[in-house]
Amino acid sequence: xxxxxxxxxxxxxxxxxxxxxxxxxxxxxxxxxxxxxxxxxxxxxxxxxxxxxxxxxxxxxxxxxxxxxxxxxxxxxxxxxxxxxxxxxxxxxxxxxxxxxxxxxxxxxxxxxxxxxxxxxxxxxxxxxxxxxxxxxxxxxxxxxxxxxxxxxxxxxxxxxxxxxxxx
Length: 168
Hints:
By secondary structure, the protein is an alpha+beta fold. The protein has one domain: Reeler domain (Immunoglobulin-like), CATH 2.60.40. The protein has helices at residues 2-18, 21-29, and strands at residues 41-42, 46-51, 56-57, 62-71, 81-88, 91-94, 100-103, 106-109, 118-124, 131-140, 148-161. Strand 10 and strand 11 (148-161) form a beta hairpin. It is elongated and about 65 Å long.
């Protein structure tokens, strides 16, 4: 019995040495990139809805963005979903620091935010760019803490700099 316990503890310690804490907790604490589908095996149809990202933007203006993961995947625990967002052009900013965070260049959910399927953040439009692209990967978790049966989706929207008419 003592050998068995020692083996379990040794395996746990070895696992913690081989993987960084972010690798072990990435599922609930954040999404480290836009590659959720590499681990989460898709379950039921899932959709990412982005609201508030304009088709034309005013340089330097701040926009409130809402991201929602819609799916018929039901969760059996408090873990309901997650997301990662990246923008080319402009800056993503946290509006709700309890449920969202900036991590390694992505705006993503926190552990508390993992209990939701809807998040809010800000995007500040670029001053000098002519176009911006927002990409969001979302997961609808079934809550069994495995990568199987979760819904995964991605959505990308682009916006162009608004054309201002010259005064006559």
